[in-house]
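One thing: could you explain this record?
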Amino acid sequence: MAFISILVRARNDEAIIGRTLEGIFAQKVDFPFEVVVCDDASTDRTKEVAAQFPVRFFTRPEGKYKPGRTLNALVKDAKGDLLVFNNSDAVPLDDYWLAELVKPLVSEPDKAAFAFANQMPRKDATALVRKDSERAFGDGKVHSTWRFFFSLASSATWKKLLVETPFDEDIQFSEDVEWTWRNSRRQQNPVSIVYCPDSHVEHSHNYTLKQLARRFKGEGMADRVIFGDKPSLFREVAGAAKETLRDWAYLLKRPGNWLEIFASPVRRLVQRISHWSGVREADKGM
């Protein structure tokens, strides 16, 4: 079995990084691993909490934070042949998260190149966040019908792959999607992406409207670069309406969450219009 480096990126997560590291070190595996924590200039006690565990700290490259540049530096620094990325707020939910995550890679190394875990909503997740999480992850049937889906938040791959084809250091959002899309579509030796529904982490966010707008604008900018999307306000508004109807169908079955019926159209419009804004902004710059 290859030596594994578990790479944990963190920023201002003092309230949860302890649970994440406890979960990592509680894994029942028969292979060695190191845990490398890359703290992005946290202003709270994130680093102090992490220091209570047998981790190795890595200092990210100086200057403005660019995810691809930090990830590439982490990859080069890692001692393992097999790399596991796990955000500081992605808490392993059982003792077999790691074994299940790397299973497809070690069992079929010639077929599986990148694996990603099943992200479960937190206990405090709103009903709409829970619904989106269940659709995006769950048994994988829904996201298998989408154009493309991947999440680096809890994932694994071979170091050799990322050394040979590094992350894009210019893109500011969706650097994980860009890498996997680019390398799964190449003509020679395309990489295969495997979803691991039995590898469980707790990871979700109850974003405010401002946070939603920022995230979806960033994803819109990335989608223009990655997929060549063109701005279409009509398509985005139609998508918001369709998702709102799906939300209402979900919420009506859950009487305790009926108040979110009123929040749904607002949140979906914010998401979609922000995405359109990002696509349009990126399109103008190309």
Summary: The chain has ten helices and eight strands. The two ends are 45 Å apart (CA to CA).
